Structures are given as C-alpha cells and as structure tokens.
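Amino Acid Chain and Its Fold in Token Form
===========================================
What this section holds: a protein sequence and its matching fold, both as plain text.
Structure line: whole-number tokens from a learned vocabulary of local backbone shapes, matched to residues.
Purpose: to set a sequence beside its fold so the mapping can be learned.
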Amino acid sequence: MKGIFALCSLIFGLVLPPSAAAQDDARWRFDPYGRVELGFVSAESGDREEQIVVDGDAVTLRLQAGAELASDTTTFQLEADRIYVDRLGEGRSSYQRDRFTATLDQELDSDWEIRLQARRYDDFITAEANDTDETSGLVRFTYEPERAHRFRLSASWREREYDPSPEDGPDAFATTGRGPRVDAEYRHRLGRYHYFAADLRAESIASDDAFRRYSRQSGAVSYTRPLNHDLRVRPGVEAIHTRFGGRTGDDGEVRSDFRIAPEVELLWWPGQWRIEAEAKAIFIDSNDERRDRAGYRLTIAAGYVF
C-alpha cells in the first residue's frame, strides 16, 4: 500500500512541479460538489457487480461528496462515496460500501492528457471475494487528435485484503491478493451525446490463498444516441472470460466462466437531475454447474447533483 502512494506522489511531482502552480495561481478555480442517488435493483442472478451483488430485490442509496481544484490545464480532485444496500426479504442482510479517490488530470499538449489516481475501497465485492478492501494506483493516457476520436490506455495495480464471509466456509481466513489491470478504450463521437465506444480489459489477481486467484479478459461495445436534449439511449453488450486458478470445475479442469450480457440504458438528465434505468440479460456458461445460469438485472435510479 505504501509503495502505491509513494509512486503516485513521485509521479505527481514530476508531472506538476511547484513552479507550475505559481505560474497558474490566478486561474485556479475551486468547485465543491455532491450527489445523492436513490435506486432500486431487481435481479435473478448471482452475477457479481462492483460494489453491489443482489439476487433478489434491493433499495440502494448513494452519497457522494467531492471537491475540484482546476486551472486551464490541470485538475486535482478529491472524492468520497458511500453506498447503502438494503436487500429486501426476510433474513436478508444489508451492507454499506465506501470509496475514497484522489485524482490528478494534466494536459500535456493539445492532443495528450495524463491521469494519475489513487483509490481506496472498503468492504466491496469482487470477482473472488464478498468482503474486499482494496488500495490501487492508476496511470491513464488519453490521446484525442480531434474531437471525433479519443483513445485511452490505462494501467493500474491493486493490493487487496480479504475478510472471510459465511459463503467462504468455516475454514476461511483473512488473506491478501495483488495484481495488474490494463484497459484500452476507443470512443468515436458522432455528435452531441452521440457516441460509439469499445473497451478491452485484461486483469489478474495473485494470492497465497489459491481460492482467490483469477485471470480475466473482457470486451464491451456500446452506442449512445440522443433522443432529445435531455434523454438518450445506450444499448451495448459485454463479454467476460474468467479463470479461477485455485478452483476446479465439474470436469476436473480449472473453473472457467464465460459471461455475456447485452443491455440497454435510458439516461434522462434534466438540469441537475440524473434519472437512469438499465435492463441487462446475463448468460453465464461455466464448467461448474452451480455457476452455469441465465438471469436478468433491472435497475432504476434517481439522483441529484449539486
């Protein structure tokens, strides 16, 4: 963990020397912000989503507070998020998740930008565990030679700590994991809020606990089209292949899950309101019969930004 923050501090210093802040002092702008969002999730799937896993119905509340300090070419941002999940139904537990983020965006020239980010998650759900704490560092380069085309490449390193949960069994114990993630993204802008986007990702986690090890490759495409000034629709599809190195399928081989999830989103953003709805079908093909399933996930959320 200390190594990640030391690396980020070193890079921040190289990208933005103290003299830059002095030269731009007259143009710095400070902007605090916040967001409150209430949502409802209904799902028939054990599919894992970052921060939320629901097999049934749940009400969610998201609270976000942050502050941004920006000049013409540099932006610092600090942000804190908390999410409450109240799973409906007798005997179903509720929980909360926290996330803290520090970000620096720096324009290098008219075409290039770099992002440096440090992030801390407390008690969130990952592919390999139900109760994970994570500290991560990220470097992202953006190349936008013209407004119609944007390319991004990012690399991050994650350090994870796992607390055992009842689903892990009576012999489970606290363990750690670590590993890289690489993302490549392309977005083609066709007009205002009118985009085609494609994303590729490769990631892995290594751990002394074989049950926590996995590798994953994924790809996604989406198309965003405005229907009027405030309303747009976004169909898309995502495919994910995950191999769990310390788990065995019914065929005696390493457990391998392939998931494909077509979805459609509606986004209505009148003024400072953010009203969003998503319908997703989830199909998982696995050599572990317990994980071989199909399901759906429906989400609607109303948020206000200020």
